[in-house]
Structures are given as C-alpha cells and as structure tokens.
Amino acid sequence: MDAPPPPQSPPPVNWDALDALVLDFARSDCLVLPPTSPSSPSSPSSSSTTTATSSSVPSSSSSYRSRLLILRARRALEEGDVDATLALLRSHAPAALLDYRLLFHLHKQRFVELVRRGTETDREAALDCLRTALAPCALDAYPEAYEEFKHILLVLIYDKDDQSSPVANEWSIKKRFELAGLLSSILRARLQAYDPILSMALRYLISIHKVLCSRQGISSPISDLIEQLLFDDRDPPAILQECSLEASPFDEVDVQALAHAVELTRQGAVDSLKFAKGDLYQAFQNELCRMKLDLSLLDKLVHEYCIYRGIVEGGSHVLPGLECNSQSHNLNSIDEQEANIETQIECEITNNQNGDCSTSDITHHDSWSRRLRRVRSSTSGQRRQKRWRGRVDDLGYACEISFGADKHDILSSALDMDEDGMIVKPDLVADSSLSDGRNNQDQKYEVILEMRDLTRKGMTSKVVEEINSIDPDFFSQNPVLLFQLKQVEFLKLVASGDHGAALRVASTHLGPLAASNQALLKPLKETLVTLIQPSEDVLMKAVSLPVLASSLQIAMSRRLGIEEPQLMKIVRTTLHTHSEWFRLQMCKDRFEHFLQIDSLKEVDPSMGSRYMPKALTDECANGSSQITTCSSGKGLHEGDSPQVLSEVSCDENAILKVMEFLALPRADAIQLLMQYNGNAEAVIQQIFS
C-alpha cells in the first residue's frame, strides 16, 4: 500500500497585515504608549511625575470606555453586587434599563442576593425590593415573568444549601455568571462596544480550526494553546423583549451563513438577526463576542509578538506590575501577565540541509558580541518603538466615575515611578544579572529588526555584509535567503543600467548557489531574463521585499535562539485550516473580508511566483505548524479536499433548501444533491421517506 503523502506546509502569511491588526488591538485597549523622545529631559520633580502619570493613562476611545463599563458591570454582578451594577447602568447606560426583561432579571437577582446575606436588615431590604421593584417589573417584562416572580418567593422559605429545594437553581452562584453574560451581550450590542478585529478574528479562526479538526478526525499542533485561549462556553445570547413566532423575514443565504459561521441553530441565527435588526455583520459580531477569550493570555501573546516584530521595545523597557494597581483599588480587573521572553538556545531550523546548526559559538563568542555591539551602535536611535503599558483595565475609567479624589493624586499615591516617570513595581525590579540578560536579548532583537528594515528598503548588499560580520556561518545554513538577497542586488543594478556589475553579482553569488541547489536554477534563469527588459519594469515586479524581510527575520531569530511567537503559530495554522474548511464547504467565506482574514492571506498582490522558489515559501511557512495525523490515520493535506464536479451544477437555492430542511452543513448538502442530480425535493423526500 502506498504511503500517505507528507503533510504540506501552510502557505506564507502576510505578517505586515498581522502587524496592523496587532497594533490596532494594542491601541484600542491602550496597551502601548508612544515612544520615549530621546531629547526629552528626565526630571524627578513632582510636576514631571504627575505629567508622566497622566500620560500613562491615555484618553479612551468611546468603544474602549464602553467595554470598560461592561467589564465593571459584569464583575460587580459576578460578585453579587447588583446594586453596583444598577448604579453603573443608571449613570452610564440608562437606555439599557428600558429593557424590562433585563431589568426584571436584575431585580430578581438583587432580591436573591439580599436574602442570601441573611441579616434582618437585608431581609427587610429584600421585601422592599419585592414590593417596589420586582413585582411592578414582573407585570411588564414578558408573559412568563409573573409566574417567575411567584416562584422566586420560595427563596424566602428554602435554605440556600438545600439542593433538593424547588429553587436550588435560583440559589446557585452560576445564576450570577449567566446573568452577567447576558448583560454583557445586551450592553455590547446596545453600545456597539465590539472587541478589536484581531480578537474577533482569532475567535473565528480558532473555532473553525476546532470544528475542522474534530470533523476530519485530525490532531491539532496548537491544541493545548488554543484550548487555553478560547473557552468552550459562551455568554448567553441577547434576547428581544417581544417573542414573535412569525416567519423569518431574512434572506436564507444570510441565515445559513450566520448559523454555520458561529455554530448556531437556524432559529438561533434568525433570533440573532432579529436582535440586530437584520444587519448580518452586526449579528456576526454579537455572536463572535459571546465567545470567551482568556484576555490575559491574549495580551501575553500580543506582547510577545510585538517585541519580536519590533512594534514595542524589548523586555528591559517593559512597564511591569501595572496589573497590581487595579487590584489595589478592588476593581476586579483582568491581570496582565508579563510575557517571559527568555533566550532559549536550541536548533529549530528544520528546513536546512546542512546538518549541525549549533548557536553556541555565535551566542557566547567574544567576537560575536563585539560585532553585535558595533552593529547596534551604528543603528541605534533610528527606530523609536512604542512602550508596552500593559492592561490597567478600568483604572482610568474608575478614577473618573467612582473615586471622589483627584485622579492624578490617586494614581501618584498608588503607583511608584522611576526617575523618568515610568511606572515600576518594586518587588519585580530585575537584579543586575537578569537586566544584563534582557539587555543582551534586546540587542539581538534590535540587530535583527535593523536587518529586516534594511531588507525592506532594498539595501540587501548592506544586509549581507552586516550578517557576515556578525555570523559568518549564517548564510551557509540559509543559502536560499542569500540567493534572494543577492537577487535583489542584481535587479537593482540592472534597473540602474549597470549590467556589468549585475553580471558580476550573478557569477559570483547567484550562479554558485544555483549550482548547489537545483531548485534555484529556474529562478536564476528568469532573473537573468531581466537583462533584456526595460529598466523600469525590473525591480518591483520581481521580488517581494516584505516577504523576504520577514523570512530573514525568522531565520535570524532562530539562529540566535529566539523563539517564534506563539501568535504566529496560531495564525499560520488557523489560516491554513480556514482555507481547507471553505474548500470543503465549496464556497467563499462571507466574513473573511470583514475580519481582514483575506489580507492576512494576501502575501503580496504585486508579486508573481516567477522569482520566489518553493524552498523559500516553505521556509516562510515553517513546518512546525503543520497539521499532523491522529490515530485514525486521517490527516489534513493539500490534496484531500473534495473537488466540485463540473458535470453537476447545484443551484444555490437547492443547496439552501437542503441545508434548511435537514439542518446540514453546506458540504454535506452539496454531496447529497450531487447524488440526486441537484434535485432538492428528491433529497428531502428520500430522507423523510
């Protein structure tokens, strides 16, 4: 029996597009601060400290402030403090209290919490709640509300620890969390307080990844990570006040697209569209944001990625310990967990064919250190990165709406500042050895990022010179990268009209590299063809500098023992399964443009494949994120997806009809229609006969 084909590497990812999504996420949640100006004086005076403190709590956008409001209301409700939740809503979202269904649930929970406290005063307050709030609200909330009102009275006579009582469910702490989730869903939609695109895209991609792996019987290489990041349970859906049983007024295409995108029943999709007043994309956002993410873990992944890509300063510039401040004010914020980006020296260059790739010599050798410092000194100050602030959650918001004191005074007393006005946490101040290690790590990042930026600018001869000065063995381990860099140099010379110098580069570098690697012969020939093309058509149509720059960064990072960020692994793998999933569904994703997934897959629209050897795209893809085969023997490979049979043309209405009546996924509906020559009625009749 023939052996199964080897797993295919996922296609390259547009890391620049991911950079934009990550930066949008960091800005939307105020996780970063602007770069420090090198000319700004540092003063330990109290005035400068106050200014620095004020700038460390940036002004929030409307969406950010609304999300903080939802977070505080949710946390208060989860702790059983319904009064605090109601006070927040009255002050900042009074329109939400016009929803009598929601208001009834809140008063009902308030009544239970007052009885739970058990004091005589609280019991009197509970009875007052019944008379003045709960009973009147029960008359107008919804048809079943008054029966629920009479039922909740039983908590007055049954003990909260009696698990056999008819109101054991009402006593359950789980009720708090269910109501908190419902409140979040309603407020999010009412206030249009949706999460950043990155957060929603990850929910969507991971959920598709899980479904595909489950249905195809394959194992996921990122299962442990995504199980921690995306929880299985969801917040309850937002509910309309009225219960209408009329036929759906929505296009069935929209209903089915929403149902299968976020794993809803058809009726659930119809209800979601009703709540969104028929707006498909608003309903989609409402459903995505019901999925629960571990926000502290996502922050950690984003921070790690930002350092790797040079979006924020490295570990020695991190603002540690901000999460303790929200706790000290008892705001129940989500803690920011600092990313632990320690150097791990190990060989991960799986695509190399030259054997040993030990990094011990280049990591510890004195000459390497001197060269690193020299390159660093020549490039320092050219890139002013942002500073990582971390998630303070509702610190600034709470100071405005809850505390009676001046915000600056509160912050100054709660936070410790260094001489530059930066927030520090005394018990986390690194000792000198850890500081030296971080500085060394930062220097590595800085050099790698400088080489990446020079490559983006097309200064590839300078890149080759500097890398050879830092690590003479680097290009012997990465010959394809050297070919690409020299290819750019060749094309620049051709574009400038210096054909003699271009031929010297080809004969000295490109020719020998192609002679030792047969995969490079074809791109070499096509590169030489540019000698007879108009100079203005040569350079930009040939090589994607951003792709080459990212490939160089990845290779240099591995060489210097820097782990690839886990966010890159998640995105690479889930984008691959996203493509496979919609190939199986035999349709285009309605939501990929809305979530900018298409831009993540668009490595470079201007680049043809003529000068991009497959060896390089494999290096970009990195085999560490391949889908592997589980015990069932099934794996996810490029050729596994079913092909649409050209002789059977399935009408879209027929597909939708089978999906609707049989509650089937699109791919299964198409397969059934193919068996019955595209006749939906025949399929349905056969199933129900």
UniProtKB/TrEMBL annotation:
Region (Disordered): 33-61
Top-level taxon: Eukaryota
Domain CTLH span(s) in chain numbering: 66-122, 444-501
Biased composition (Low complexity): 39-61
InterPro entries: CTLH/CRA (IPR024964), CTLH_C (IPR006595), Ubq-SigPath_Reg (IPR050618)
Stored Pfam families: CTLH (PF10607)
Name of protein: CTLH domain-containing protein
Organism from which the protein derives: Zizania palustris (Northern wild rice)
